[in-house]
Structures are given as C-alpha cells and as structure tokens.
Amino acid sequence: MPDKKDDVYGDHISHQFNDEMMALKTEFLKMGGLVESQVDRAIHALVDNDSNLADEVRATDKKVDQMEMDLDEEATLILARRQPTARDLRLVVSVIKMVSDLERVGDEAKKIAKFAIKLSEEGQAPRGYVEVRHIGNHVLAMLHDALDAFARLDAEQALRIMREDKRVDEEYQAATRTLLTFMMEDTRNISRCMSVMWILRALERVGDHACNIAENVIFMVKGEDVRHTPVEEAEKVVGR
C-alpha cells in the first residue's frame, strides 16, 4: 500500500471539490472495468467461436467512447473551475491522458471481436489460440493491476507493470515467429493465421496501454515523468 504522504488527495476547504475529485476517480475506474471486460469477452468470443458475443463487444464500444467524452468534459471543467495545483493538478492531467489509453484498449477489443467474427465465418485457424490465451491473460492482468495501482496510488505496483511490458513484447515476438513458420509450411492457412497475428498484435497493444497507465500513476504519486525512460530509471524515481 502507498504511504500516506504519497496520497494525491488532500482535504480541501471545498467539500464540493473533494466530491468532484472522487467522482473523477470513480468514473475512470468504471470505464477501466468496462474496457477490461471488453478485452476478456473478445478473447472468449474468439476462443469459443462465439460470434454473438463478439457482436456484443463491438456494440458496447459506443459506450466506451461516450465514457471517454464524459470524463474529458468532467476533467476539463475541474481544471477551469478549480484551477488545481500540485498533486491535484497531476491527477486531473493524468486522468485525461489515461482515459485516452482506455479508449484505445476498447478499440483493440473491438478489433479482436471483428476478427473473431471473421474466423467464425471462415473456420477457426489451425494454430495460435494457445498463444492468444496466454498473452491475453498476461495483458489482462497488467490492465487490472494498472487500474488497481491507480485506485491505491501504488507506485511500486505500477513499476512492476512496466517491467511486465517487456515480457509481453518477448511473448508476442515468439508467438508471431511460430505462426510465420507454420504459414510457410502450409500456405493454405495463411489468411486465417494472419487474422490470429492481428489479434496477437492487438493484445500486445493492450499491454502497451496498461504500461502507459502505470507510468501515469508513477507521475501522479512521485511527480516525475517516467515516459520514454528505461525501467531502471523509473526504479530510481519510485525508490526515492
């Protein structure tokens, strides 16, 4: 658990300001829970050959988009009305950035659902589903932990997610090499295997967005921007 000194939220003279900040956090976590569910359902739609579930995922994307716009408006109003400073300002600015990452995770879920429908119509690919399950579970855990790190303002947990991102990249590269080898050995399955490769790419991107959220959590808690920096440098920031 983060130390009390790392808590972004102070007690403001205005109780309404406190309520607005807490509402912003709550709505962000609601959106996070929805996109996490979207990715999970899209993977199940693919593996279970369930085109109806895939259609539901695609339809729900409109709700994700609306939540993004609502949160952007809410954060902008707080900036205009309250003119927050220090940690409060970092929270609001970070939420604006992280909402964009969540919306893009929703887009990746929609993309996976689209390919799930395509493969349901063409016939499932002969290879790649084990890799989809494995990488899917990995990036879902990262996304869940990133949202939990935000909820608890836990910079150390956020740092662990940054470390995991490299592992996901390595798993993605290994999976694509396996599929490429299989396609060269049996060209009849190129089209369906290419769909699986696009799905793996979408999952790898979900991991990237989870990492982006983790980086913003560290910024909120520590006040230092760790984007585009090696994990070793982020470790120094979190350790201070």
TrEMBL record:
Q: Which GO terms describe its cellular component?
A: cytoplasm
In the UniProt record, does the keyword Cytoplasm occur?
yes
Q: What does this protein do?
A: Plays a role in the regulation of phosphate uptake.
Q: Which residues form the PhoU domain?
A: 29-115, 132-217
- Report the locations given in the UniProt record: Cytoplasm
Q: Could you tell me the superkingdom of the organism this chain comes from?
A: Bacteria
Q: Does the keyword Transport apply?
A: yes
What UniProt keywords apply to this chain's record, in alphabetical order? Cytoplasm, Phosphate transport, Transport
Q: What is its main location?
A: cytoplasm
Q: Where is the signal peptide?
A: none
Concerning Pfam families, the annotation shows: PhoU
Q: Which GO terms describe its biological process?
A: intracellular phosphate ion homeostasis; negative regulation of phosphate metabolic process; phosphate ion transport
Q: How does it assemble?
A: Homodimer.
- Similarity comment: family membership: Belongs to the PhoU family.
InterPro entries with a match to the protein in the record: PhoU (IPR028366), PhoU-like_sf (IPR038078), PhoU_dom (IPR026022)
Q: What SUPFAM superfamilies does this protein map onto? A: PhoU-like
Q: What is this protein called?
A: Phosphate-specific transport system accessory protein PhoU
